[in-house]
Please model this.
Amino acid sequence: MEIERLYPLPNPDSQPYWDGLRDRRLMLQQCADCGTIRHYPRPVCDQCYSMEVDWTEASRRGTVHSWSVSHHAFHPSFKADLPTTFVTVDLEENVRLVGILRDPEVTLSIGMPVQVGFEDAADGAFSIPVLFAA
Ligand SMILES: [Zn+2]
Model:
Protein backbone atom coordinates (compact mmCIF):
# COMPACT_ATOMS: atom_id res chain seq x y z
CA MET A 1 0.00 0.00 0.00
CA GLU A 2 1.39 3.36 -1.01
CA ILE A 3 1.13 6.04 1.63
CA GLU A 4 0.40 9.54 0.40
CA ARG A 5 3.04 12.13 1.22
CA LEU A 6 2.36 15.17 3.32
CA TYR A 7 2.94 18.57 1.74
CA PRO A 8 2.74 22.12 3.03
CA LEU A 9 -0.60 23.87 2.88
CA PRO A 10 0.04 27.43 1.60
CA ASN A 11 -1.91 30.29 3.09
CA PRO A 12 -2.20 33.92 1.93
CA ASP A 13 0.97 34.82 3.87
CA SER A 14 3.10 32.00 2.45
CA GLN A 15 1.70 31.60 -1.09
CA PRO A 16 4.32 33.94 -2.70
CA TYR A 17 7.09 31.91 -1.02
CA TRP A 18 5.79 28.64 -2.48
CA ASP A 19 5.12 30.23 -5.88
CA GLY A 20 8.69 31.53 -5.89
CA LEU A 21 10.18 28.11 -5.16
CA ARG A 22 8.21 26.62 -8.03
CA ASP A 23 9.60 29.38 -10.30
CA ARG A 24 13.16 28.68 -9.04
CA ARG A 25 13.31 31.86 -6.98
CA LEU A 26 13.82 32.06 -3.22
CA MET A 27 11.45 34.82 -2.14
CA LEU A 28 11.57 36.36 1.35
CA GLN A 29 9.13 38.70 3.03
CA GLN A 30 10.37 42.23 3.63
CA CYS A 31 8.52 44.67 5.84
CA ALA A 32 7.15 47.50 3.68
CA ASP A 33 7.52 49.96 6.57
CA CYS A 34 10.92 49.28 8.17
CA GLY A 35 12.58 47.05 5.55
CA THR A 36 13.34 44.12 7.86
CA ILE A 37 13.55 40.81 6.01
CA ARG A 38 11.89 37.87 7.76
CA HIS A 39 11.49 34.16 7.24
CA TYR A 40 9.33 31.99 7.65
CA PRO A 41 6.40 33.87 6.02
CA ARG A 42 4.07 35.43 8.58
CA PRO A 43 1.64 38.33 8.72
CA VAL A 44 3.38 40.72 11.14
CA CYS A 45 6.85 42.30 11.27
CA ASP A 46 8.51 41.38 14.56
CA GLN A 47 10.49 44.66 14.55
CA CYS A 48 7.75 47.27 14.02
CA TYR A 49 4.50 45.21 14.05
CA SER A 50 3.55 46.42 10.58
CA MET A 51 1.32 44.16 8.52
CA GLU A 52 2.48 45.76 5.24
CA VAL A 53 4.71 43.38 3.33
CA ASP A 54 6.80 43.29 0.17
CA TRP A 55 8.70 40.35 -1.27
CA THR A 56 12.36 40.30 -2.23
CA GLU A 57 14.37 37.67 -4.05
CA ALA A 58 17.15 36.17 -1.93
CA SER A 59 20.69 35.46 -3.06
CA ARG A 60 20.31 31.75 -2.23
CA ARG A 61 23.74 31.92 -0.58
CA GLY A 62 24.41 31.23 3.06
CA THR A 63 26.44 29.31 5.60
CA VAL A 64 25.69 26.29 7.75
CA HIS A 65 24.31 27.28 11.16
CA SER A 66 23.60 23.70 12.29
CA TRP A 67 22.29 20.38 11.02
CA SER A 68 20.53 17.25 12.14
CA VAL A 69 20.55 13.79 10.60
CA SER A 70 17.19 12.09 10.96
CA HIS A 71 17.09 8.30 11.07
CA HIS A 72 13.40 8.18 11.97
CA ALA A 73 10.69 9.29 9.54
CA PHE A 74 8.17 11.72 11.02
CA HIS A 75 5.65 10.21 8.58
CA PRO A 76 5.73 6.72 6.99
CA SER A 77 5.86 8.13 3.45
CA PHE A 78 9.34 9.53 4.13
CA LYS A 79 10.93 6.24 5.26
CA ALA A 80 12.54 5.62 1.86
CA ASP A 81 14.45 8.93 2.13
CA LEU A 82 16.26 8.03 5.36
CA PRO A 83 18.68 9.08 6.60
CA THR A 84 17.75 12.70 5.85
CA THR A 85 20.02 15.62 6.73
CA PHE A 86 18.18 18.82 7.65
CA VAL A 87 20.42 21.88 7.53
CA THR A 88 19.69 25.25 9.14
CA VAL A 89 21.31 27.94 7.02
CA ASP A 90 22.18 31.53 7.89
CA LEU A 91 21.25 33.22 4.61
CA GLU A 92 23.12 36.32 3.44
CA GLU A 93 19.84 38.18 4.05
CA ASN A 94 20.30 37.59 7.80
CA VAL A 95 17.45 35.11 8.22
CA ARG A 96 17.55 31.35 8.72
CA LEU A 97 16.13 28.72 6.42
CA VAL A 98 15.87 24.95 6.87
CA GLY A 99 16.44 22.72 3.87
CA ILE A 100 17.33 19.14 3.08
CA LEU A 101 20.94 18.43 2.13
CA ARG A 102 21.14 16.99 -1.39
CA ASP A 103 24.90 16.71 -1.58
CA PRO A 104 25.66 13.26 -0.09
CA GLU A 105 29.44 13.47 -0.54
CA VAL A 106 29.85 16.64 1.49
CA THR A 107 31.18 16.74 5.06
CA LEU A 108 29.28 19.50 6.83
CA SER A 109 30.86 22.01 9.17
CA ILE A 110 29.58 25.08 10.96
CA GLY A 111 30.05 28.16 8.78
CA MET A 112 30.51 26.18 5.58
CA PRO A 113 29.17 27.99 2.49
CA VAL A 114 26.04 26.44 0.98
CA GLN A 115 23.67 27.30 -1.82
CA VAL A 116 19.91 26.86 -1.92
CA GLY A 117 18.51 24.83 -4.79
CA PHE A 118 15.04 23.65 -5.69
CA GLU A 119 13.44 20.25 -5.92
CA ASP A 120 10.03 19.48 -7.36
CA ALA A 121 7.60 17.47 -5.30
CA ALA A 122 4.01 16.30 -5.58
CA ASP A 123 4.26 15.97 -9.37
CA GLY A 124 5.34 19.58 -9.71
CA ALA A 125 2.63 21.06 -7.49
CA PHE A 126 5.36 22.10 -5.04
CA SER A 127 9.03 22.79 -4.96
CA ILE A 128 11.02 22.63 -1.77
CA PRO A 129 14.34 24.23 -0.84
CA VAL A 130 17.30 21.86 -0.90
CA LEU A 131 20.94 22.55 -0.12
CA PHE A 132 24.27 21.97 -1.79
CA ALA A 133 27.83 22.87 -0.87
CA ALA A 134 28.71 26.18 -2.50
ZN1 LIG B 1 8.83 46.36 10.11
Remarks:
- The pocket of zinc ion is lined by residues 31, 33-34, 36, 45, 47-48, 50 (CB under 6 Å).
- The mean pLDDT is 94.
- The chain has one domain: 15-133.
- The longest strand covers residues 61-70.
